[in-house]
């Protein structure tokens, strides 16, 4: 079918248009047939059969490689899992042993704690019993010391005998205006002190004799403040030294008396003395005296 050209168009243009139409129709007819070299045609995209055949051959190889990689990865994962499972088994076994050890140690700890508690309870019982025994021994020693006097600062005489010591006691009693017979001195001896020096211990037949002598000494020294009892009064040659007389105390009472005197000076207690082997404190004139039985009594004597 041919269209009529518009008016005014030249015959040459009409002829060119007809030629282009004819060429296009021929090309379409040729493409619909079996063209021998379709891939060499310019401007026409046609898939290559050789390229498709190449892809079809490589696909199985690629899939096989993927399967091999997966198998290798699976094998490595199984090895790691087996190793991890073995490690977990070992850890569980170690934890089981550790748990048993901890349970054993807990049991041992409980046993030791029970033993320690029992030991502590027994120790307290023993300590109480020991304190009771010490108190009994202290009371017995105090009773033995009730009739004894300690005379300090008496120089030791070369070749000194008990008779010399008896004469010292007798001469001291005369200065105090007391008559002491030989039979009234049950025993007399000298003891060495820990820090050096020595004291004379005189044991009388009665406590009243001892108390009378101590009372006379205190009275004598109050009356003779400028010439207190000293070695010159009993005719001892050498340097003049003061003579101190006090009741004989046990070792425990001596320490307690020392601590009590120190406590009195530090806490404004005016009086500190001993009587019948016991230690007393008094803060001032007219105040209540305090019996000191132990070091704890000194602490409780301080008013907050």
Topology:
Elements lengths: L10 H21 L17 H97 L2 E5 L9 H14 L9 E8 L5 E7 L2 H17 L20 E4 L3 H16 L4 E5 L2 E5 L7 E3 L2 H6 L4
Antiparallel strand pairs: 1-3, 1-4, 2-3, 5-6, 6-7
Describe this structure as you would to a colleague:
The protein has helices at residues 11-31, 49-145, 162-175, 207-223, 251-266, 295-300; strands at 148-152, 185-192, 198-204, 244-247, 271-275, 278-282, 290-292. It is α+β, with helices and mostly antiparallel strands and 304 residues long. The chain has a four-stranded antiparallel beta sheet. Strands 5-6-7 form a three-stranded antiparallel beta sheet. A hairpin with a 5-residue loop joins strand 2 (185-192) and strand 3. The model is unreliable at 8-36 and 38-44 (pLDDT under 50).
The N- and C-terminal alpha carbons lie at a distance of: 139 Å
In this structure, how is the largest beta sheet organized? Answer: 4 strands, antiparallel
How many distinct beta strands?
A: 7
- The strand order across the widest sheet is 2-3-1-4
Q: What is the ordering of alpha helices and beta strands? A: HHEHEEHEHEEEH
Strand portion: 5-15%
Tell me roughly what share of residues is in helical segments: 55-70%
Low-confidence parts:
8-36, 38-44
Number of helices: 6
Structural class: alpha+beta
Radius of gyration from the alpha-carbon trace, in angstroms: 64 Å
Integer average pLDDT: 81
The global form is rod-shaped
InterPro entries: FP_C (IPR057251)
Protein name: FP protein C-terminal domain-containing protein
Organism: Mythimna separata
Keywords: Coiled coil
